């Protein structure tokens, strides 16, 4: 099946099973805004818990905060967002659609990469075991020609984005003959800058009101509180501050479901270090974060680092962790060495000293910062994409199953009476009353057992417990495992110890040690 179709299925599965709904759906929705349903919110909360605990419980020197969404507007002047948090946009006059000029060009670069990849794969098949990829890349005329075009385009693009030079961006789009995917034409307007921050008014009277912004990232709330936390928590450098919260960006092109939203949630951690040590910490955080992702068990081949060649003016190293989505490898998390840019800017704009006094050296300095920044919603999407499976069974049937890591699954255990009579429902409720203090359980008595199992498979429930007539006399139930569909007869009194450890966030955290 084409990857596009797989993605469509995932989107409709998210809606059908109460994971994600379009916002304001009965009013025809609101562009790039989504609501999480009864299962979605559980999965999302589990992702957040996994991140929060990995940061604050596994690191003695990381603490959390929860800062407000509204902040003093000068913060956004200091951070550079008022002047420079822009995307270059371009319109197609025929389709009347708006695009990000940089994304159109990046897609074009990706097309060249795909073309090269296809050639390589063809050759691999042709030459079999004796295939030498490096040699082939050096010698194949076709590959060399495409690679040269790709590299030239990349170099022009990187140069145009410095500044950025809007005319140069448009010229690239014209020279590459990039067409609008909808109208198929090259009837483009000029490229313009578009600020992504949402603004609103704070204060009751028109005269006294102040323009404030909905924060486009959570990081600034950490920077402006850094000294409060350092002093009240008696934190010593190196130390980190973690935060989970909503962020808002007026994205020009909202694409790919919850991948790019206008209201989304971030999990950010700023790690404050002594100047000159930041490039030692940067690879450590790269490794720590990659381990966190891979502990979910989706396979190392689905992740990669994408180091930035073009760095923001305040950064001295940056990388993205990309995950293989059905629409290609995409950024899920950014790791940036942000130097002392933000803290210095806030010192300058606020006129207050926010230097750190190092008791060991008796020196004061503005700390440098390593940032790890991950989108909850993108993480959610990557998990959904990987967990969703339409599995062919031996009997020829297909079952739709979400192979979610057990610790992240919305419901951990469904308890089902075989029939709705003879005291079986009461026994099932009794079991739930025991287990519900430890993890999320669901009671289900409707339809055949087979149908009930399928319903739980579709929301990723790792365990199902069936109560039958024998249960009443032998105190045993049938425990069914989602992934293998195997069933085992176990004592009711053992259920908690069998299940709890496997579905706890602690089980994931232990893999990070
Ligand atoms: P992109 O290049 O995709 O716009 P970005 O580099 O601007 O992302 P950052 O500013 O580094 O993203 O934000 C950190 C993380 O926040 C991203 O890795 C992503 O997971 C998440 N994120 C950013 N923008 C959005 C959005 N519009 N919708 C959902 N998640 C987002």
Automatic annotation (TrEMBL):
Q: Which residues bind substrate?
A: 100, 217, 264-268, 371-375
EC number(s) of the enzyme?
6.1.1.14
One GO MF term attached to the UniProt entry: bis(5'-nucleosyl)-tetraphosphatase (asymmetrical) activity
Keywords of this entry: Aminoacyl-tRNA synthetase, ATP-binding, Cytoplasm, Ligase, Nucleotide-binding, Protein biosynthesis
Which GO biological-process labels does this protein carry? Answer: diadenosine tetraphosphate biosynthetic process; glycyl-tRNA aminoacylation
* Compartments, as annotated in UniProt: Cytoplasm
- Is Kinase one of the keywords? no
Look up the signal peptide feature and give its range. none
Q: What is the protein's major site of localization?
A: cytoplasm
The record's catalysed reaction(s) read:
tRNA(Gly) + glycine + ATP = glycyl-tRNA(Gly) + AMP + diphosphate
Domain Aminoacyl-transfer RNA synthetases class-II family profile residue range list = 150-410
Protein task: Catalyzes the attachment of glycine to tRNA(Gly).
- Please report the name of this protein according to its UniProt entry: Glycine--tRNA ligase
What organism is recorded for this protein? Xylanibacter ruminicola
């Amino acid at each position: 099946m084409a990857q596009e179709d797989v993605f469509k299925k995932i989107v409709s599965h998210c809606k059908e099973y109460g994971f994600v709904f379009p916002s304001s759906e009965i009013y025809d929705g609101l562009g790039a805004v989504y609501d999480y349903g009864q299962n979605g919110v559980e999965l999302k909360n589990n992702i957040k818990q996994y991140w929060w605990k990995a940061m604050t419980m596994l690191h003695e020197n990381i603490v959390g905060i929860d800062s407000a969404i509204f902040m003093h507007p000068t913060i956004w002047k200091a951070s550079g967002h008022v002047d420079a948090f822009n995307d270059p946009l371009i319109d197609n006059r025929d389709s009347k659609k708006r695009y990000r000029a940089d994304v159109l060009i990046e897609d074009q670069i990706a097309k060249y990469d795909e073309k090269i990849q296809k050639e390589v794969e063809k050759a691999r098949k042709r030459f079999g075991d004796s295939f030498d990829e490096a040699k082939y890349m050096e010698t194949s005329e076709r590959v060399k020609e495409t690679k040269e075009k790709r590299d030239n385009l990349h170099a022009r693009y990187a140069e145009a984005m410095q500044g950025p030079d809007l005319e140069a961006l448009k010229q690239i789009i014209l020279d590459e003959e990039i067409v609008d995917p909808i109208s198929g034409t090259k009837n483009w307007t000029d490229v313009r800058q578009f600020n992504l921050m949402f603004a609103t008014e704070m204060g009751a009277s028109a005269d006294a009101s102040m323009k404030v912004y909905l924060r486009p990232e959570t990081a600034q709330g950490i920077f402006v509180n850094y000294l409060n936390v350092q002093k009240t928590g008696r934190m010593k450098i190196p130390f980190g501050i973690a935060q989970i919260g909503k962020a808002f960006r007026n994205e020009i092109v909202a694409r790919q479901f919850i991948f790019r939203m206008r209201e989304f949630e971030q999990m950010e951690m700023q790690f404050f270090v002594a100047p000159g040590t930041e490039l030692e910490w940067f690879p450590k955080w790269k490794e720590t974060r990659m381990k966190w992702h891979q502990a979910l068990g989706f396979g190392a081949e689905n992740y990669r680092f994408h180091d930035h060649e073009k760095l923001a003016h305040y950064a001295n190293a940056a990388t993205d962790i990309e995950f293989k989505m059905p629409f290609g490898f995409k950024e899920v998390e950014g790791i940036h060495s942000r130097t002392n840019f933000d803290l210095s800017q806030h010192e300058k704009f606020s006129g207050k000293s926010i230097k750190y006094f190092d008791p060991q050296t008796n020196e004061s300095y503005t700390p440098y910062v390593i940032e790890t920044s991950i989108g909850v919603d993108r993480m959610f999407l990557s998990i959904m994409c990987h967990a969703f499976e339409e599995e062919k069974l031996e009997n020829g049937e297909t079952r739709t199953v979400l192979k979610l890591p057990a610790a992240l699954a919305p419901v951990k255990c469904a308890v089902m009476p075989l029939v709705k009579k003879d005291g079986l429902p009461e026994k099932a409720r009794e079991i739930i009353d025991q287990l519900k203090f430890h993890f999320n359980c669901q009671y289900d008595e409707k339809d055949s057992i087979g149908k009930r199992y399928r319903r739980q498979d579709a929301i990723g429930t790792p365990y199902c417990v069936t109560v039958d007539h024998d249960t009443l006399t032998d105190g045993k139930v049938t425990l069914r495992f989602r992934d293998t569909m195997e069933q085992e007869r176990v004592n009711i009194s053992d259920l908690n110890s069998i299940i709890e450890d496997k579905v706890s966030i602690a089980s994931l955290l232990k893999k990070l040690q």
